[in-house]
């Protein structure tokens, strides 16, 4: 079998949090193209249903739409139960749901701080932990977490200390889980995207004036496109990445190199 064939995801059962739109949706499309059955998990159930239906229609795979708030342990448990009821197993978890908030540190309220940490860091822990428990029982699996280049550098000029801290946390959480579960065949990696054109960035009024500035700073002079994260996630989900765990893939067009 050639390498491209070996990278296919036929028979794999995958869930994607924040899968209704943006990076999650784009990567979910790639998983389906590669042959996997995909559960789209999102707070926005209507959008999740639309994405799940699109995937099923275009790629002839099984899909499920699940409404869940990744910050709520009961929602995460319910999500796992629904996936197991329909798919019977979980081979890959893409823990991707996240939000961004730009507020100067001295003005940030406790609730604003907590919201970002709850979704971006605690949400990734809860979903990775829940998936990991199933994968440990099954004898293996692959978890991919979405961190950010903001876990490596302090972006300017927007003030986003909670976001930066949450994403640095995701990188270290990823490495910790990878080491804990290494001998039990559960691999845990993360991706650290640079600025990508998604609803999170393009629809945030506070970010719009900054986009031109970021593009000027960026070595490639542009933002990334969500589809430019597809191949790394298909690689991490599949069996050819069997020696890759605890890794953090920075996909930022060299932004963190400047
Ligand atoms: P997006 O806003 O386009 O999509 C995020 C999705 O997550 C939405 O569908 C939203 O409903 C869902 N979501 C939010 N909170 C949730 C919760 N509590 N439970 C379940 N679902 C929830 O965002 P995106 O740009 O696609 O970002 C996806 C991930 O990528 C985030 O973790 C983000 O921090 C990260 N990221 C984005 C960029 C970028 O420039 N867009 C760069 C680096 C990292």
Automatic annotation (TrEMBL):
<dbReference type="Pfam" id="PF13561">
    <property type="entry name" value="adh_short_C2"/>
</dbReference>
<dbReference type="InterPro" id="IPR036291">
    <property type="entry name" value="NAD(P)-bd_dom_sf"/>
</dbReference>
<dbReference type="GO" id="GO:0005975">
    <property type="term" value="P:carbohydrate metabolic process"/>
</dbReference>
<comment type="similarity">
    <text>Belongs to the short-chain dehydrogenases/reductases (SDR) family.</text>
</comment>
<dbReference type="GO" id="GO:0047936">
    <property type="term" value="F:glucose 1-dehydrogenase [NAD(P)+] activity"/>
</dbReference>
<dbReference type="InterPro" id="IPR002347">
    <property type="entry name" value="SDR_fam"/>
</dbReference>
<keyword id="KW-0560">Oxidoreductase</keyword>
<dbReference type="InterPro" id="IPR020904">
    <property type="entry name" value="Sc_DH/Rdtase_CS"/>
</dbReference>
<protein>
    <recommendedName>
        <fullName>glucose 1-dehydrogenase [NAD(P)(+)]</fullName>
        <ecNumber>1.1.1.47</ecNumber>
    </recommendedName>
</protein>
